[in-house]
Amino acid sequence: MEHSKFIGYVGTYTKGASEGIYTFTLDPGKKQIENVKVAAKLDNPTYVNITKDNRNLYAVVKEGGQGGVAAFSVNAETGELIELNRQLSDGASPCHVSVDAAKQTVVSANYHKGTVSAYTVNDDGSLQQAASVIHHTGSGPNRERQEKSHVHFTGFTPDEKYVVAVDLGNDTVTTYAHGNGKLTEAAVLSVRPGSGPRHLAFHPNRKFAYVMTELSNEVIALEFDEASGTFKELQYISAIPEDFTENSQGSAIHLSSDGRFVYAGNRGHDSIAVFAVKEDGKLSLVEYTPTEGNWPRDFVLDPTEQFVVASNQNSGTLVLYARDAETGKLTLLQKDIPVPDPVCVKFLHA
Fold it and tell me: Residue 244's closest CA among 311, 196, 290, 312?
């Protein structure tokens, strides 16, 4: 039987050998990653996201002294990307970008500027100028990393009524109501000072969400009220072993679509922590899986969720695991797949 292959994309830093966004194919039959090549040449496309209909990809982009978001059309057969346009503003480029399922709004997070930007999407997938730019203020107790706001993630709530912004600099998770690209603050949750929240992922039941903290390298389990857009803390759980005392910084966080497992990346411990989700939304540790490389910045479950692909930024490699849907555990299949300075990994949707 012929297995359909899955197309993936890797966002990178272009400070070294990287030329931009890379594409690859995952062959589930052979259980391997193949055909790694450049999909689009641009500067520092560190984060990418793909529309639900697979027709468009949005990437963070740097151009000279400006930064912003670039819009692409996707050839779902070949993985080829064609740039539609880019919206730029002066200063550092963003670090995260998301698009809603209805393909009406794109939001980006800017770590250096401490801003959340919202863009209206045109019918062809291209972007209008930012309709809304919100500047965060405040700081945290970590003087080196929290001297000001550092927004690290922007995404949509499951019903897409709200946009959520996670701020590593001031230890907050902020919910914004949105319409026509305009953002209005709805709620703010302050998490433990100095934890440095980085990324957030929702549980499929829409009642829980999980935040990966960069500075304290923990997962925060949250209860989410869909009506009001408010969050409440349930649990803080370390994503690294208690006896690990070297530098480790939390990176990405993702859930299996059945809501049974949470996966969290650790840069320094160089692992993916696997957690089981209990009925009350709290987590219990299953295992730590080594990433066979240095500084795992991100990872992704493939469309079948039988595989996980992780990106080791500092060793310039992808690594492929088989995933056991019953236990949540990961088993190494393939390592040392070269991609220069990989940051973010995404698949076209099945």
Answer: 290
First to last CA, the chain: 18
Cα 153 from Cα 196, distance rounded (Å): 12
- DSSP states along 233-286: EEEEEESS-TT--S--EEEEEEE-TTSSEEEEEEETTTEEEEEEEPTTS-EEEE
pLDDT tens profile 181-227: 899 999 999 999 999 999 999 999 999 999 999 999 999 999 999 99
Handedness of CA 33, 34, 38, 40 (dihedral sign): negative
pLDDT at 307 exceeding the cut of 70: yes
SS (H, E, C) 273-341: EEEEECCCCCEEEEEEEECCCCCEEEEEECCCCCEEEEEECCCCEEEEEEECCCCCCEEEEEEEEECCC
